[in-house]
Every structure is written in structure tokens, then in C-alpha cells.
Amino acid sequence: MNPPPQTSARGGLLRRLPGWRVRAALVACGVVFAWAVAQFYDPATGFTSLISIGDVLSGTKVTALRQVPHYVYEGSSGYDGAYYAQLALHPTLENPELAKAIDNLPYRARRMLFCWVAWLLGLGQPAWIVQAHALLNVLCWFALAAVLLRWFPPTNGQNLLRWFGVMFSHGLCMSVRNSLVDGPSLLFVAVAIALLESGRRAGGGVVLALAGLGKETSLLAAAAWGDGDGKKLRTWRRPAATAIALALPLAAWMGYVRWKFGPADDPGFGNFTLPLAGFIEKWRFVVCDVRSPAWGLPWATLLAVGALGVQGLFFLLRWRPGETWWRVGAAFAAMMVFLSTPVWEGYPGAATRVLLPMTLAFNVLVPRGRRWLPVLLAGNLTVLASFFEFSPPHEFFQLRGDPALRAAVRVTPANGWHAPEGHRGNYWRWSKERAELRIANGTPQPVMLTVRGRAASASDVRGLRISIGELLVWDGRIGNGQAEIRFECALPPGESVLVFASDQPAEKVGGDPRELAFMVSNLEIVVQPAGGAR
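RESULT FIELD:
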């Protein structure tokens, strides 16, 4: 059993920080988190923009989800949370629509625990279930914030730093932002080990077995039930028997899923590869990306990947198999070595959430003291990427000008755009080679448009032409640095199409799986009566 780490009176400013200020900072962090989540609320769709449901899946969604108002991301296939939301609507897996709606259903259906929880919280009502699924990560975030006080009591600044490093790690924030299973699974792992450390071995085992039904890799935390002495064969018997017992609920459920749907097309083996192959490939991508970044994510990704590397090296170089949290962290560090490209790709990628238990173990175990502070800070740099997760959906254009005309003019992104993105008041969309904005003038008279914004290329300098109908309204060269767009044109009654076209095809850049040609940001469309353009 490992008691909560004790702090000494010695140390720097972080240790001397008064407890009341630490507690105030914890409360402030909770308020800021709640405020950030509240930005995703929409009166019509609630918090469903947290689920990341893309319009590419519109034709395959289950009927129950179609009948519930929800936010849809245009030009996107969405993210895994969209699949789990549909499983939550049909927790018995009896609906035949699931086979078409869920990508690799036998694999997704393994992770049913939090789908069942959302169904229970929603009292079986589809509209409530979807909202419960969207907010389940938020509830678990606050629960985890309280549980972590066991290891990081609010007595000094260094404990606050460790608590903050977990609670605002990119992996946890990504789970909240996309309604994934990683955050709730980390809560169950933390509770299980807290029970184990308190001497309630069986109770902790039950909680961890349930965590396996939420995400199978949570069972790697079964390493905590070992005794750290692997030199004698007999010392393996009890830990091995415990690990088998903890895996039995998941094994039984997987057997049922296999009986019902057959074997999975992809059982998840594609997420693993030769040792360090995926990690090295990720480094190659991020190093290339930061040489000419079009936005801040490549640098945040570089720091996040570096932080995971620091965490893994900590467990490799500081061998402590007798410590409960070391065994947990080392198990996930070993898994990190084998993670393949699908887990690493993206900005920063899924690895930060897959390895959340390693991040928690790292913060628990890094020794106190000024000498270890650089290691602690370096291992928590994923928090810099977290800020990119809390940008609520916001279009890259704003309609301004005469209030009466604004009410009669409607602007809609059409073909060729990727999903809208934003950070710190800047909003943009990446595009393929050609993209459209449909502008409907609901008045019987022409109106004048003044359009201002910025554009940038995904990589090399390229040409960009903007036209409305047969009229060319802007033509220029754009590169990595953003170029200014400005033009005026008349908009006739009815619908017109504003076309953005590149003279070069789209391409994949770095680890981004999308095909990118150019982006348009902070587009301002000013509507004035004919003859009143400025």
C-alpha cells in the first residue's frame, strides 16, 4: 500500500504558497472549466456540439438520433463520441440500424459501460440520453478533480501544479471536448487505486473491472495489484489470478458481442506496431511541421509529444516496481512504445488521451523538490495543447451592415470546406481545391457586399481566385503567411454562389489526415443597400 505522498517544509515558492490561495486557485480552475464548457451550449441543440457528430454520417445515423436536435459539424465525419452516443440510445444492442450506423460495431460495442450510464442518466428518453452523453465527461471531470486531492492535497503550489497537469492535460480535455471514454475511464482507474491503497483490495478490483467495460486498456492498471517482486515464480501467481479475475467481466461481454455480431473487422490490432515505430514517425512529422507552421497547433503538438516522451523516460530510468503507481505508469509507458500511427496522427493526436493513466502516475511519483521541478514541468506540457480543444463551433465569417438587410441575407458554407476551427477569437476553415459559400438575398432588390478577410496556403505559394457567378471578384497569390482579401460586388435577389478556387490540388500536410489547399479566416461580409457599399 502506498500512502499519499508527503510534502516537506523545504523548497521554493511553490511549497510556500499558502493553502488558502491553493484552494482558491482550485476553485478558480473549476469555474474556468465550467465557463469553457458553457460556451458550447446552444438553445436549440444543448451541449451536443461536444459530441462531434459530422454530416458525413448523416445518412447512416440511427433514427433515434435523427429525431433528437443535435449539432452537426459540416464537412466532417465527426469523432468516436458520435458512435457511443448512438450505442447509448440502444444499450441492449438490439436495434438493427446499429450495424450500419456504427463503424466496426463489434469493436465499439466492447466499450458499453458509459453508454449504459448515459442511458440511465437520461432515464431512457432519447433527448435526455444524448445530453447526458455530452455532459458525462464534464461530470467525471469534476469527480476526478475531487478524487485527485487524495494525492495532491491543496496545501502547496506544487500539488496544485500536479493537479493542474492532470486535470488540464490535453488527453483529458480532448475526452471532454469529444465525449469520449478516456476521461471517465481515468476516473474509474483513480478510484480503483485509491481503494487499493486504502486496503480495500476487493472494492478496488470491482471498480477496475468496471473500468475495463468502459475501455479495455484500463485493465493495464491491474499491474497495481502486483507486489513488485517478479524474481520468484510463485510471486506471480496471485497477481496473475487477480488480473484474470479483473478481466472476466470484459471477456464475458466481449463473448456476448462476438456471439451477436461475429468477429470485429478490425479488433484494434492496427493501433499497435513495432517498438517505437509510431513514436519516431510522429516526431518526424512534427519536426517538419514546426519549420513553417500555419497556426500554433504544430508547436503545441511538438511539446505534447515531447511531454509524453518525458513521462515514458521517467518510468524507464527511475525503476521502482515496488510502488503501486510506478507499476501502473510503467504498464502504460510500455504500451506507448507500441502505439502505431493511427493513435499518433493529428494535432496533437489521440496518444495523449490513450496514455492518461501514465500522466496521472507521473504526477503522483515525480519527487518533490526544486531539483525535480523542470522534469515535472516538461512532463506536463500537454496542457499547452488543451487550449485548442475549448474553441466552440463558430463560423469563419460574420455578417455585418444594415440590420434589415442582415435579417434578409443568409450565408451557408457549401461544398469543399472542412469543419470550422477557431482559437483566441480567430476563426477559419480549411478547404480542398474548390469551396463554395452560398449567399441568399431574400429582398426583391440587389444589395452590395463588401467582403474582407484573410487567406493562407497549406504549404507552398499558390493562386486563389474568388468569383460569384461568372464574375471574378478577387485574384491573388497566397502563401504560409496570411494574405488580405478585400472586394466588393453586387448580390442579386435569390441565391448566389461565392466560389473560392485554388490553382493547385489539395495535399496532406504533416500528420493531418485531411487534404488541404488553403484556409480562409475571419471573413467579414458587410451588407449595404445598392450604392451604399463602403
